[in-house]
Amino acid sequence: MSRPYSGNSMFEFPNSPDEVLKALTENDYLSDEGLATVVFLSLTMQRPLFLEGDAGVGKTELAKALASWTDSELIRLQCYEGIDSSQALYEWDYTRQLLHLRSAEASGRAQTEIEVVEDELYSERFLVRRPLLRAIDPAPGKRPVLLIDEIDRADDEFEAFLLEILSDHTVTIPELGTIGGAVTPIVVVTSNRTRDVHDALKRRCLYHWVNHPELEREIEIIRLKVPDVSNRLARQIALAVGSLRGQGLYKPPGVAETIDWSTAIGKLGQETLNEETIRLSLGTVLKYREDQNRVAEQGIEMIMAAVENE
Known about the structure:
By secondary structure, the chain is an alpha/beta fold. Helix content is 49%, strand content 15%.
């Protein structure tokens, strides 16, 4: 018998990876057995899940599916070069603090009252909660899903800062004291592997490399996300995308591009793939000029061969 998830009375621990697989499918995410197993272990062990893989393979979508399944808030921290702790954790609303102080002075309060007002400036009222603080100190009875997206874009200093947060799920704010620790959020960390992430961060997580989906699963994804596309066309598109991924492109298409391409071909009113349709719609599946030129010059025949030989 499953037991309630301690942070969300509406969510229950899964008893097996099969339950995870079923639940993700019900929330429009088609997983394979390996990914479902590591999600199961991440939930039951309450450990962060570190997902690496090419851009567009569905890492971010998994976090969204988890939030939908657990009926939780999805809190997303988008990493970028130069991000620091104040942008990720908290900062003070200096504008409101200044207005509050000036208002007190303008009202003619005594000096002792002004000193009390100054003490009020560093209270919850003026605290701006950024994603990490919102995740480790959520509303009572809630366990959010924290998505730390594209950690490989951040620098080493930010990684080191994350280590403490992911270990203790608390933060000390000098003016307020220690906050958090009561709830362990569901944490998903993603990386496109534009650089190697330090082992210290990975050690605190369960790890999974997310591959591009196999043919049959990609067909299922197309049919799920673009239901107007026929089974035949979905198979042709999946075969075509598989061919593109084998052509050594600068940015091979991910699942997101597969879905966009399927939608575009459907909008063009095509029931089967042909060379002209591929040529005209390359911009929906390939996002670099060099890749488009390479495929237009020598790759379309390879795509058609893959489609016709199935």
